[in-house]
Design a protein that fits this description.
221 residues; mainly alpha; elongated
């Protein structure tokens, strides 16, 4: 187990050195770590880390038991010394493994954040350059737009004056229509009166004709 822990420690140290220096291998390592952190990778890493931590606690517990037994017995047992040294070495190596794993995770996180920040800054610089180029290139367009705005303002003034003239004409026409309406009402009243007079005259004529016909009938008798 000690040989395995040494191999893991040297592998982690190699990964840390690869992440610290900008080399073509660092991109490959970062891509590999990105894939490890996707899907079930984080669960597996946490499981392995939890197992190592439990074994570390077990080694520490064994060291405490050996220490208590040595204190109670008063004499130092060579076997306990060997076991104590072995558990201490294993605990130290496992703690170092966990520490280096944490270092690798943080380095990978900071490198990704740095890459994102650089990309954001580059995009902002390109956008600012494009904006400056657009400002320089749109000076003529701004002038043309200014002239077009002036032309449109003159057209608006002309249309407003025309609208005012049409509004005045419409008001005059409304006044004329109102006068004609009143005049037509007067004429209708007069026409009604004339119809009534005509009807009265017809009634008078009919009564006169009847009286004349009656008088003629009496004379003939």
């Amino acid at each position: 187990m000690i040989q395995l822990l040494y191999a893991v420690i040297f592998a982690e140290m190699g990964l840390i050195m690869t992440l610290l220096f900008k080399t073509p291998l660092r991109k490959l390592v970062i891509m590999s770590l990105d894939r490890v952190k996707r899907g079930r990778g984080p669960v597996m890493v946490k499981t392995v880390g939890g197992t190592v931590f439990v074994v570390l606690l077990s080694s520490v517990y064994s060291m405490v038991k050996i220490q208590n037994r040595t204190i109670e017995g008063g004499a130092v047992n060579p076997t306990d010394q060997v076991l104590m040294s072995k558990h201490m070495l294993e605990a130290s190596l496992m703690g170092f493994v966990l520490f280096l794993s944490l270092m690798i995770d943080r380095l990978h996180h900071y490198i990704r954040e740095l890459r994102i920040l650089r990309k954001t800054m580059e995009a902002a610089k390109k956008q600012s350059r494009g904006f400056e180029d657009g400002k320089n290139g749109s000076a003529d367009e701004a002038k043309a737009l200014g002239e077009e705005v002036k032309t449109l303002q003159n057209k608006i003034k002309y249309l407003e004056s025309k609208f005012e003239e049409k509004a005045k004409e419409a008001k005059a026409a409304e006044a004329e229509v109102e006068a004609l309406r009143k005049q037509s009402e007067v004429l209708l009243i007069e026409y009604g009166r004339l119809l009534e007079d005509n009807q009265n005259l017809r009634n008078q004529l009919e009564s006169m004709d009847q009286s004349l016909s009656q008088s003629d009938g009496k004379k003939n008798m």
